[in-house]
Amino acid sequence: MDEQMKKQLGIEENKPVDWFETLYSESNEKGNGVPWANMAPHPVFQYWIDKNLNIGTGKTALVVGCGMGDDAIELEKNGFKVTAFDVSSSAIVLCKKRFPDSKVTFVQADLLKEIPEWHQKFDFVLEIFTIQALPPKYEDILIKNIADFVAPNGQLLVVTEVQKSERDFQNGPPWLLNESYIKSFESHELKLIEHSNSFESHMCGELHLSLFQR
Ligand SMILES: C[S@@+](CC[C@H](N)C(=O)[O-])C[C@H]1O[C@@H](n2cnc3c(N)ncnc32)[C@H](O)[C@@H]1O
After folding, report:
1. Alpha-carbon torsion 186, 64, 128, 139, what sign?
2. Which ligand 1 atom lies nearest to the CA of residue 159?
3. How far is the CA of 183 from the centre of ligand 1 (A)?
4. For residue 52, what pLDDT is reported?
5. For the segment 156-202, what is each residue's pLDDT rounded down to a tens digit?
6. HSE (CB half, 13 Å, CA atoms) of 2?
7. How far apart are CA 120 and CA 91, in angstroms?
8. What is the bridge-based pairing of β-strands 206-213 and 191-199?
9. Distance (Å, whole) CA 211 – CA 191
10. 9: pLDDT confidence band, cut at 50, 70 and 90?
11. Is residue 92 lining ligand 1, measured as CB closer than 6 Å?
12. Cβ(133) to ligand 1 under 6 A?
């Protein structure tokens, strides 16, 4: 993204989340103007869940940076009791409007802040493209806070784009991760148990699916 566009959207390294609220508050239930809103579960997540049908029976799940809410609804369909959060309160309003009959708890929360009541609380945590939506200097805290949500024996599924070159504020958003994100999650007592990087990338990187277990 060029500097002019960044300025227009209000993207600043030291104010990393304000622009999401601006984007969603100007959007609607069709996701107009939200670049990542495909109004369906992410295809890589859909591929994975289709191979793991009904794994959610009796289990809890948390969706990080849930956006328009489709991934949360897919987890609910697969039996999970789902909580889904986004930093943008307007995104949460749109999720509730789009899925009025759902039992998913859609809630506003900020991943940059610790959320003690969710400490190791969820059997399944889903992270798609949230870490790469924030400037590189926040990577460690985002990874630490995501890892913290995973219950003992619980799992974390990460879908992210990865680049070989060093991450740099000038080159985003999105700020594609480096492969070292895997070691970072592992440093928080999670073990990589499934990994694929053979999906088609739309961001000139490698599209990864990584499943971790505590
Ligand atoms: C690139 S979008 C991806 C949305 C969704 N996961 C998807 O795949 O369609 C990143 C999402 O993370 C949310 N987000 C950004 N920073 C966040 C934060 N600090 N805490 C919670 N959500 C955040 C944004 O509002 C946005 O909905």
Report:
1. negative
2. 8
3. 22
4. 94
5. 999 999 999 999 999 999 999 999 999 999 999 999 999 999 888 88
6. 1
7. 25
8. antiparallel
9. 8
10. confident
11. no
12. yes
Query: Sheet harboring 81-86: ordered strands across?
Result: 105-108, 81-86, 60-64, 122-128, 150-162, 206-213, 191-199
The count of other CB atoms within 10 Å of the CB of residue 12 is: 13
For the Cβ of 67 lying below 6 angstroms from any atom of ligand 1, the answer is: yes
Whether 167 contacts 177, CB under 8 Å: yes
Asked if residue 27 has its Cβ within 6 Å of ligand 1, the reply is: no
If one residue of 26, 63, 130 were mutated to test the ligand 1 pocket, choosing by the most ligand atoms within 8 A of its CB, it would be 130
Nearest CA to ligand 1 atom 10: 130
Contact present, 55 and 177 (Cβ < 8 Å): no
CATH superfamily of 3-213: Vaccinia Virus protein VP39 (3.40.50.150)
pLDDT digits (tens, 9 = 90+) for 48-94: 999 998 899 999 999 999 999 999 999 999 999 999 999 999 999 99
As a whole number, mean pLDDT of residues 4-8 equals: 83
This prediction has a pTM of 0.97
Pairwise CA distance, residues 21 & 93, whole Å: 11
Distance (angstroms) between ligand 1 centre and the Cα of 67 equals 6
